[in-house]
């Protein structure tokens, strides 16, 4: 019989399943970030128990491996020095004539739309280590950022 008429399994045509990529470098988090990781892992465990199909359960198990790894490797970032921008800081700055405020957090708690950016983001890297009144280069411009205020971001301190 010709191979043209051979029935192949449906599995041969499925896309391969890859693990969720883990950001390189240390997994620095705020105390709030570590709590978020624990909540997400627990939510996925609950979803696995309630999953209706094997395919859904397999997808959720992959998600759980990601969240468990992130929780296990999470390190609470040291508090920055008084008056210095770092992980757990809310920084208010001027950029391009506009006043902006962001909180510098870990990867998994980052939400740029809410003003939470990961410490590895270019903007955060430009601000980390800065103090009120200092300027910092950003995006190829020497004094693109002027730091106006630094405070502890809400929820970033240990309870």
TrEMBL record:
<feature type="region of interest" description="Disordered">
    <location>
        <begin position="1"/>
        <end position="26"/>
    </location>
</feature>
<keyword id="KW-0251">Elongation factor</keyword>
<feature type="domain" description="Transcription elongation factor GreA/GreB C-terminal">
    <location>
        <begin position="82"/>
        <end position="151"/>
    </location>
</feature>
<dbReference type="GO" id="GO:0032784">
    <property type="term" value="P:regulation of DNA-templated transcription elongation"/>
</dbReference>
<dbReference type="InterPro" id="IPR036953">
    <property type="entry name" value="GreA/GreB_C_sf"/>
</dbReference>
<dbReference type="GO" id="GO:0003677">
    <property type="term" value="F:DNA binding"/>
</dbReference>
<dbReference type="Pfam" id="PF01272">
    <property type="entry name" value="GreA_GreB"/>
</dbReference>
<dbReference type="GO" id="GO:0006354">
    <property type="term" value="P:DNA-templated transcription elongation"/>
</dbReference>
<dbReference type="GO" id="GO:0003746">
    <property type="term" value="F:translation elongation factor activity"/>
</dbReference>
<protein>
    <submittedName>
        <fullName>GreA/GreB family elongation factor</fullName>
    </submittedName>
</protein>
<dbReference type="InterPro" id="IPR023459">
    <property type="entry name" value="Tscrpt_elong_fac_GreA/B_fam"/>
</dbReference>
<dbReference type="GO" id="GO:0070063">
    <property type="term" value="F:RNA polymerase binding"/>
</dbReference>
<keyword id="KW-0648">Protein biosynthesis</keyword>
<feature type="compositionally biased region" description="Basic and acidic residues">
    <location>
        <begin position="1"/>
        <end position="18"/>
    </location>
</feature>
<dbReference type="InterPro" id="IPR001437">
    <property type="entry name" value="Tscrpt_elong_fac_GreA/B_C"/>
</dbReference>
